[in-house]
Specification:
elongated
């Protein structure tokens, strides 16, 4: 009986020890799974595993607060909460660990977790302060992680030299792109491009490459970004859809820089990139080869039509673009091609349509200038308006707008303004003679454009903002009123309307004048 009585506490201790060991083993297993997921770029799933590791570690602390593994559980709890993205909950266990734990490896892990949260909460100086022990660690992985976090802290303080030194000493995969970001922030694009070339040896991440190439284009120019992309595509294994999207993004950068030839070439490369289902074909004006069914190919084809629209010199140049966009918009679901094609088609068709009023003609010319980014076409439309509706209130304004697009013909246009529209507030404003009549005239023209928008909008009441009709880039978009096509095509810069100044309305009907002699339209 005595032996049996002595066995009861021993068995209870064994059961308790097994339960404790199993809970700690589970916590460590969740942490191991989280690290594996992080290594494969699956951060959202990793955060879930870190949260489970923290919960298991918390269970150990609650049920076995004085066990010899309590410090491990405390550190893992803080570490798990920090890496799960819940730094507010991690603060207390991390602070407790740093105040009570003496084991060096555990303290280093607690310091890394504290630095992670300091960076996440915008306290880069605090991050570097808690990394002292980890930076001197005998464990290369913890030391490498500490160098990376210290580099982020230095970058957050704009100490770029220190940040670069830390990142060079880190073996973290994220350290290379971090070095490139710092070099770009420090306006050192040549060195940044050299670092980008080394990224082809690590796992490809499309969003990361797009971000870095955008930054290189800003810091070093679009040529530098295009060259870096070419080198990367030649060296790295990039899946076909991602390859096409990178080419499209480079084409967009070229288009924004008004390098239309290079933009069109990039879009053709994206069209030719093989789709998920097979190999690719050659370039051309529309989807070809294996990319025929890919959404990326359709998107690239739409962007190429946008380039053609930007090159247009007259309304007749828009007809084949309308035809091709109609074909693409009806090519079936998948990707952004059809919806983007429809939006661009609505815009191009609006500009190509024969206007029924001077207000409509002026609106079309502004859309060509600001939304299609087609300066030659816009100049032609502005001059056509001044020729065909010379008595309209829009005529002198159209001449002033055309003059901004045709600087080499400034003198001849100014001559027409002086001979025919010398009393116009627009001509006087051009000479630096501001007058109340200018604001009143702008208000009148805004109302007339508002009537035009309400008349052409399909269905429902138009939502029109009265806008000051300034002659510089302003860009009244077709989506100021309800339309089928939605917003402007991706990548075209949207310029916000300027608010019109209040003033009395000026009658839109004026006595007919002799038609002025307008310089020949842009060819």
């Amino acid at each position: 009986m005595r032996r049996a009585a002595n066995l009861v506490p021993a068995l209870a201790l064994m059961v308790s020890g097994c339960t404790y060991y199993n809970a700690m083993w589970s916590a460590e297993r969740f942490a191991k799974d989280a690290r594996r997921l992080e290594a494969h770029g699956r951060e959202p799933e990793a955060r879930g595993q870190w949260a489970r590791a923290a919960a298991k570690a918390e269970s150990v602390l609650v049920h076995h607060p004085r066990s010899r593994w309590a410090d491990d559980a405390l550190v893992l709890k803080g570490e798990g909460l920090a890496l799960a993205g819940t730094c507010s909950a991690a603060a207390a266990p991390i602070a407790h660990a740093l105040a009570t734990v003496t084991d060096p490896p555990l303290r280093e892990r607690a310091g890394l977790a504290a630095a992670q949260c300091a960076l996440a909460t915008g306290k880069p100086s605090d991050a570097e302060h808690v990394l002292t022990e980890a930076l001197a660690s005998s464990d290369p992985r913890r030391r490498s992680r500490a160098e990376y976090l210290a580099g982020q802290g230095a970058a957050g303080r704009l100490d770029y030299d220190s940040a670069l030194a830390h990142f060079r000493r880190s073996q973290e995969p994220a350290a290379l792109p971090a070095r490139a970001r710092v070099l770009l922030a420090a306006a050192r694009p040549v060195e940044a491009a050299a670092v980008l070339d080394t990224l082809t040896g690590i796992r490809f991440r499309e969003a990361e490459w797009t971000e870095l190439l955008d930054g290189l284009a800003i810091a070093g120019g679009v040529d530098a970004a295009s060259a870096a992309l070419d080198r990367m595509l030649a060296r790295a294994r990039v899946p076909s859809p991602e390859r096409a999207r990178l080419l499209i993004a480079d084409g967009d950068r070229r288009f924004a820089a008004a390098d239309l030839d290079a933009a069109a070439a990039r879009y053709r490369q994206a069209v030719a990139a093989p789709s998920r289902g097979g190999g690719g074909g050659g370039g051309g004006g529309g989807p070809v080869g294996g990319a025929e069914t890919g959404g990326e190919a359709r998107t690239a084809s739409v962007r190429e039509q946008r380039v053609l629209a930007a090159r247009a010199a007259g309304p007749g140049d828009l007809s084949p673009i309308v035809t091709e966009l109609t074909r693409i918009s009806g090519s079936g679901p998948g990707g952004g091609g059809p919806s983007e094609a429809q939006a661009l088609l609505n815009l191009v068709a609006r500009v190509a349509a024969t206007p029924t009023s001077p207000g409509g003609a002026f609106r079309s010319a502004e859309l060509a200038r600001d939304s299609l980014a087609a300066p030659r076409l816009a100049a032609r439309l502005f001059l056509d308006l001044a020729t065909t509706d010379s008595a309209s209130l829009f005529a002198p304004k159209a001449l002033v707008a055309a003059m901004a697009l045709l600087p080499d013909r400034r003198d001849s246009i100014v001559g027409v303004l002086d001979r025919t529209y010398a009393a116009s507030p627009y001509t006087r404003a051009l000479r630096g003679d501001a007058s109340p009549a200018y604001a009143a005239l702008e208000d009148s023209l805004a109302h007339e454009l508002g009537v035009e928008l309400a008349r052409v909008a399909p269905g429902g009441a138009a939502r029109v903002r009265a806008s000051g009709l300034l002659t510089g880039p302003r860009g009244p978009w077709l989506d100021d009123a309800p339309s089928r096509g939605g917003g402007p095509p991706t990548g075209v810069r949207r310029l916000p309307p300027q608010p019109g100044e209040p003033g009395r309305r000026v009658p839109t009907e004026r006595p007919r004048r002799e038609r002025p002699v307008v310089p020949p339209a842009a060819s």
